[in-house]
Amino acid sequence: DAVAFTATGSIRFSTLGRHSVTGATGADEDVLEFFPVSLGLTTTGTYATLLDLSTLGIDPAANLTALEVIE
Known about the structure:
The protein is an all-beta fold. The chain has strands spanning 2-5, 11-14, 19-21, 24-26, 30-38, 44-52. It has a 4-stranded antiparallel beta sheet with strand order 1-2-5-6, with no helix packed on it.
């Protein structure tokens, strides 16, 4: 749905619908961050919810279509 890469190597993204991974659950208006430990055939790392936009008053029906990381 939307994705951005940070200078530190993490990946920020939103999904098309509800999501559930170890460390984060939410909906399409949320932004997840993945902190990779290793990438390749067996990718490992941790997830966290970066932004839960519904807690900021954003309508849960909203859908993110783009992300921009300004560092």
